Every structure is written in C-alpha cells, then in structure tokens.
Amino acid sequence: xxxxxTIQQIKDVAQEAYNLYKDNTxxxxxxxIPYLANINPKLFGxxxxxxxxxxxxxxxxxxxxxxxxxxKVLTAILILRQYGAQKVLEMIGADATGLPFNSIMxxxxxxxxPSTPLVNAGAISADSMVQPIGNSDAKWKxxxxxxxxxxxxxPQLIDELYKSESATNxxxxxxxxxxxxxxxxxxxxxxxxxxxxxxxxxxxxxDQLSVCAATIANDGLNPDTKKQVFGKELAPKIxxxxxxxGFYQHTGDWLYTSGVPAKTGVGGGVxxxxxxxxxxxxFAPPLDEAGNSVKAQLAIKYIMNKLGMNIxxxxxxxxx
Length: 320
Ligand code: DON
Prior knowledge:
Layout: E1 2-5, H1 7-21, H2 34-37, E2 45-50, E3 55-59, E4 65-66, H3 71-83, H4 85-91, H5 105-109, H6 120-129, H7 136-151, E5 156-157, H8 159-166, H9 170-181, H10 189-200, E6 202-204, H11 206-217, H12 235-245, H13 251-258, E7 262-264, E8 269-274, E9 278-283, H14 294-307, E10 316-319
Helix pairs in contact: 1-14, 3-4, 3-6, 3-7, 6-9, 6-10, 7-10, 7-11, 9-10
The structure holds 6-diazenyl-5-OXO-L-norleucine (DON).
6-diazenyl-5-OXO-L-norleucine is lined by residues 68-69, 101-102, 120, 165, 172, 200, 264-266, 291-292.
C-alpha cells in the first residue's frame, strides 16, 4: 500500500505524544551508575530527522545525556565499516540473547561467540576489534570520529560519568575476562573494557541521535551533513541487529507493540530507525526494570502507531 504522510501530521502527533507523557512519573533513573541516579528525572526530549534533513524537535532535545548502550550501535557500525558484514558475523555474531544486557549467563550459554555487538559482551568484543589493534588512543579517535560522522556533530565525554562508571563496572570487568577465556577479545581486555566504558560515557543529545538514526535509515548517507558515512549494503545489517536485540529480553514485545527497530540505553535515550522514512530519538531518564526509558518508549510507540508506521506492514510511505 502507498501512503503519503505530511510533515505537519508528524509534527502534530509528536506534539501529542510529548504532551501526553511529559508528566508521567513511572520508572526510576539507573542507580547502579551513581552519576545517572542524580540526573533530573523530569527531562524529556524528542527529535525526528527526516530523509531530507528536516527535523521535528520537542522538549529537552538539546540536553546532553549519557549515550550508554545506544553507543553499541555506533561502534557496531564502525567495525562493520572496518571489517565488513561477514567478518562481524563470524567474530561476534548477530543473535538475540533473550537475556539482560549485562548477562554473564548468555556468554556461558553461547560460549563460542558473544551473540551480538549490541549487548555488553559483544560490545566489549567490538571495541577490541576496532582498528588499529594495540593502540588505545588511535582506537578511541576512530570511535569518536565515527560517532561524529554518524551524528553530524561531535559528542562530548562526560568525565564525571566516565569516572563514576569506571569505578563501579565490576560486572563488565568479569565479562571482558570471560570473553578473553573464550578467545573473543581481539585486543587487550582491560583496554577494550576501558574503550567501552568511555564510549558509554559520551554525552549526546536526542537531536544528534535522531541524525544518527536517520543516517542508518538513509542507507548510510547522513541527511544533515549529506556525507556518505558507510556503505549502503551495511544499513540493513545494522537495522537487523537493532531489531533483534535493541530492547534485550523485551525486544519481541517492543517490536510487536511499536513496529520500529530501536535501541535503548540506561542514560534514558532510545534511537529508532524507520528505513527510508526517518530516524527518531527520545530521551527521558526514568527506566523500567529492564533498563529502558519509560517515557521514550511510550512516546515513540504513540508516534508510530498513530501514524501507522510499522516496518512489518509493508506500507510504502512518502513524506510531503
Ligand atoms: O555497561 C553498562 O552497564 C552501561 N555502560 C550501559 C548499559 C546500558 O545502557 C543498557 N541499556 N539499556
């Protein structure tokens, strides 16, 4: 079915979602990372970036928050750019774990590979793969440059978050060394863990995340900067990774109810990709018990359902 949706319709529906959920008080900030526990829980922002670069923005879309697990998508793109889709499949995998993001059980169950670059284990493994191997500073530069190209502007390290997370990341330290035990760390384990922790501590805005999402939706061409960031053959690979595990053990429920592949982070951000149509991002710190932003989920679901946008309904939508 062919359908046309106007930009005004998207604006109206996004505004409705914002008004509907802005005073919602469900959920709780992440408290296992001390910095995140202290962020104002009332912050709420939405940003949508269309394929022509036009944006629809509401609330705190310019507030810089911790990117956290959403960064896994960006570094997955970097290793896809550096190694190609087949190598990433062989060296990490593309399976859903069906388990929480920080699961050690998942590594033990699938001890021949860490499943997907979008859970903690696979993301640490992905950081170990970033080239040039053995050079922490150059690897970090590659990670930040890739983020900047995807988002259209540079993210900024939140030093306090980095310190807070480094001082408390005991579970991730176990993951890094367990992966080493299974030969799934391709560089120094402590260095790989540190790069992962640092990338999670990057400050990002909903505005920047919507540009990143739109770049994925637009076959690797950043609609803001007009630069081709990655090969278009990689776009469906990235979206499939996001679709299968973006909400961890709740990914099926999410896709079933929202119809949009999306990735969350415990900083409160969610990045959603509607291929060929738009990138959408929302941010609000309070999380549900699985570590996913309550208000960001509600807002994105509302917008998708109200507009009848769903990757599974096969509608060919043009925006006018
Ligand atoms: O490694 C961690 O636990 C955090 N840096 C990121 C976790 C996260 O964002 C999970 N997503 N919902």
